[in-house]
Amino acid sequence: MTELDKLLASCLSEIEKCDNLKKMDSIRSVIFGKNGRITQIMDRLRGLDKEGKRKLGAEINVVKNEITRQLDLKHSRLELKELNKKLGSEFVDVSAPARHRSFGRIHPLTKVSEEIANILSSFGFVCADGPDLENEYYNFTALNMPDHHPARTMHDTFYVNVPSSEKGRNLLRTHTSPIQIHAMLANTPPHRFFSIGRVYRSDSDATHTPMFTQVEGLVVEKNVGFAHLKWIITNFLKKFFAVKDLSIRLRPSFFPFTEPSAEVDVSYGIKDGEMVFGCGDKWLEICGCGVVHPNVLRHGNVDADKYQGLAFGFGVERLTSLKYGISDLREYFESDDRWRNTFGFQHVS
Ligand code: PHE
User: Fold this and answer.
1) Distance from first CA to last CA of the chain, Å, rounded?
2) Is residue 95 part of a domain?
3) In terms of domains, do 77 and 145 share one?
4) Which of 134, 257, 296 to mutate to test the pocket of ligand 1 (most atoms within 8 A of CB)?
5) Cα 61 from Cα 226, distance rounded (Å)
6) Phi, psi for residue 315 in degrees, rounded to 5
7) 311 in the same domain as 198
8) pLDDT for residue 349 is more than 70
9) How confident is residue 279, by pLDDT bands cut at 50, 70 and 90?
10) Which of the two ends of the chain, N or C, has the fewest CB atoms closer than 10 A to its terminal CB?
11) C-beta separation of 330 from 206 below 8 A
12) 262 CA distance to ligand 1 centroid (A)?
């Protein structure tokens, strides 16, 4: 038996005896590593002549190949064995209930804001936006609310402690109406805008929260009047509550930025203990509206002798509560998962 035959036989028996993957790695390095058994024999090639090198080289290769083949074979057998052992010990109960995954819900205000935007867009209104942090000029002065107006008092309004400018003190907007001014200034008439946004007032009880959401509509066109306003509001409400018939009642009111002004009541009845719109003889206040005061048009760079303006404002929480039966206003902003799971909407993909 040559030295190479002996080497092969002893390597193969080592491999044969080996029973785990870790040991396989050390056997491999004992044979092929830097000072491994094959490596040592290969070193001898250096001292041989050409013919000797060729002969011994070929013999070493045969041995090397055989050892490698056996190592790989054993390696994959051991791998399979260990995998089977693992599968046997790890039990997967496919009948166990799946772990709960929360996908979140669409907040009712988001859902209703989208519904409102869709309806007003179908009437030809374009969405307009403005900042939550306003100044006295846009929030009051430009809207014909003079210095002595009660809404300007600290008691009602959140003034913000940042340096005031020539446009007055800074404050969180108390209504979305300043967007009327921004939108008019940024465009040329005729106008047909709506905006949906948060507004802030120093108020808090079951029916008032310091922050709430308003939707504002503005039309500036030639030859428009209260009849158009009535049509827009009635048809908006019909679409929103998905009813064929619905009556509104306009009650004279006052807003500094509209003249004449009105509060709008919508008709409803009670069926099986629930409010139903489009029938019945009861009335519920739902929005403020009016013909835009000429001073407001002028502040929006509109020729008040040629154009008339119509404006209306709804509370989005109010509309949402009426449509989806939510009673306490504060719950809209409490981020309670249980509330959202009850009143929130599922995503549709
Ligand atoms: N801005 C008014 C408010 O906050 C609502 C309103 C808007 C009234 C537009 C008339 C016209 O009370």
Assistant:
1) 76
2) no
3) no
4) 257
5) 102
6) -90, 125
7) yes
8) no
9) confident
10) C
11) yes
12) 10
